[in-house]
Amino acid sequence: MPIPIHDDSTDANFADGIAAGTSSVREFPPLEHFRVQNIPPAAYYIPDFITKEEEEYLLRKVVDESPQPKWKKVGTGRRLQYWGGTMSKNGILLPEPLPDFLTSFPDIIYRIESFLKTGSVKGKEKMELGIVQVLVNEYLPGQGISPHEDGPAFQPLVATLSLGSHTVLDLHHYLNPTKPSPPMISHSEDQGGKTIAAIPLAHLLLMPRSLLVLRSSLYTSHLHSIAAKEEDLIVHRPITLSGNASLNGDEGDVNGGGVEIANMDLLGDAEIVDSLKNTGRWKGRRDTRVSLTFRKAEKVLKGGALGAMANALKR
Ligand SMILES: O=C(O)CCC(=O)C(=O)O
C-alpha cells in the first residue's frame, strides 16, 4: 500500500507558486486508503497533507500575523482562535467570512473538501463537509486538552491539520456502569453523567503537516484528548507467531508511560517507523503545536455577519 512520503521537489514549485500566486496540489489515493485499522469507525490519517512551505505560511498567518484579540485563553493557559465565526449560547454559528489563507491561498479548504469526497461510496453516507468554521488550538510543550466530545452543534465529520510539532491524540470510550469491562477501571471524570474508561481505547501519533479525519461513531460516541506532556514515548510490540505481543524494547517503557499507536502503518515517516521496528521505541520532544480543526456547524445564522449584527441589535 503506497503511502505518500513528502516529496521535496514540490517545495521549490510551491516557492515559485508563492510568487506566481498558485499552489502545488498533490494527488492522494482515495480516503479509504488512509483508514486507521482496528478502531471504531472511523479515523483516517493522511501524512504530509500539506508541504513544509504551506505549513510555515499557515503558521505565520495564524500565529505571527493574527491580531492579538483573535486569541482566547482557556483555563489551562492554552490559546485558541476561531475563524469563520463563533457559536451562540444556543448552538447556532454566527458566521464570518473565512480568511484568504484558508480559502484561496493556500486553498486548504477546497483541498480537504475534494479529498473527503474521494471517500464517498454510492448509496452510503456521503463524505461531504461544507466547512464553515476553523478552530485553531495552540499547545506549548506540556499543554494538552482533557477528554471531550466536540458536541452535537457540529456535523460528525471533522478534519484536523497539525502544524509545527507532533502530538499524541488519545481516543476514549464511555463505560457502561452496569456492565464494567475489565481490565478497565472507571474514571470519575464526569461527562454529562457518563463515565469514561481510564485507559484510552487508542493512541494516534499526529505528525506536523498531517491531516486527521474523524467521523461517525468515533465523533458521536467517543471522546478525544491530548495528554499534557513535554515528551512522548511510543512503543511497538510486534505480534508473534503465537499471537502474543512481544516487546523489542524495555518492558519498563510501557510501565513508564510508553504508548502503542494505532496509525504506525500510515505514518509515512521512515525514521520513526524504522526506530519502532528495530528498537521497539521512539521518543520525541514536543515543540509548539498548532492545530486547525475544519468543521461544519449544524445550524448557521442566516444573513451572515450582517444578520448576526441585526439580531444583536434586536435583543
Ligand atoms: O488539537 C487537536 O488535534 C484536537 C483539538 C480538539 O480536540 C478540539 O479543539 O476540540
TrEMBL record:
GO CC aspect terms: nucleus
GO molecular function: dioxygenase activity; metal ion binding
InterPro entries: AlkB-like_sf, ALKBH6, Oxoglu/Fe-dep_dioxygenase_dom
Cellular compartment(s): Nucleus
Major localization listed first in the record, in broad terms: nucleus
Residue ranges of every copy of the Fe2OG dioxygenase domain listed in the record: 130-298
Keywords per UniProt: Dioxygenase, Iron, Metal-binding, Nucleus, Oxidoreductase
UniProt family annotation: Belongs to the alkB family. Belongs to the iron/ascorbate-dependent oxidoreductase family.
Name the record gives this protein: Fe2OG dioxygenase domain-containing protein
Lineage: Eukaryota, Fungi, Dikarya, Basidiomycota, Agaricomycotina
